[in-house]
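User: Fold both of these, please.

Assistant: Here is the first one.
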Amino acid sequence: MPEYFVYPIYTAAIALAVIAVVPKEEIRRLGVYAITFGGFASVVVLLIFGGLFNIVEWRNFAPFGFGSIAFFPPIAWTNYFIMFFYFLPERKPWLYLFVLFAAAYSTLFSNVLMNLEILAWYQGRVLLPFFIYISWFSIITWAYLKSNSPDKDRDKRKQH
């Protein structure tokens, strides 16, 4: 089997996990955040760290991409962030640990992808990828929580 089939297989597996675990109403609600902070942001992160700094690149995506962008990873990241936001704890100590472990998981998984020769990190396999993931996940968690804060909902109700 060609390496590039890992892309649709993994994307289908994570999509099935989302369908099996996350209620349909929550998928709809979280989809916009996941597309923005997951799918779109993954392309931006890749363009910045891959295109500008030559730190990372997708490899062996054959017919499933254009230029340096593989089509399936943004879809997989979108599904990943639907689950990320769905399981995101509300309390701070657990919230910080959740983001930390999510970044560690992503670093670990990116090393699996390196071993499968579909992702390449050129500046280290652990520290820099972890720094990128923890920064990305912290920023999007902050943005998600700010846009979904109870205070914001309370302010909207007062206006009506």
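And the second sequence with its predicted structure:
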Amino acid sequence: MTSFQITIEPHKRAAGRFIGSVRRGLQRAYAEEKKKSGIKQTDIARALGVHRSVINRELTGLKDMTLGRVAELAFLLGKKAVISFPEMVPVAGQNIETSRPALRVKTDYAFEEKGEETPESDFEFNEAA
């Protein structure tokens, strides 16, 4: 039997978890507001000037949302969209990387001291101490 192991880079895992938690938060807010006031996806779509299927795809995860759309949906659901950036605290049993690698950025052009352009250069950015 063939077995496959999938490796997800820590930053991709963090992005996926963030997107999932935002989407679940919006789904929860929608369910609460629907129960309380009877709001429908059609009502939200009309307020935003889009088709109901757009709202459905965004809430179910079939379509990516911008931060602006997240804020619009939260507002229409009577909520305030808030994003915070707390420090990552590793807890036993979680797969949170405690050490992050240096950021490497590849650019198309670099400038030498003489001011001449040179193509394809690597820059390395290290975390400030």
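Strands lie at 103-111, 117-125.
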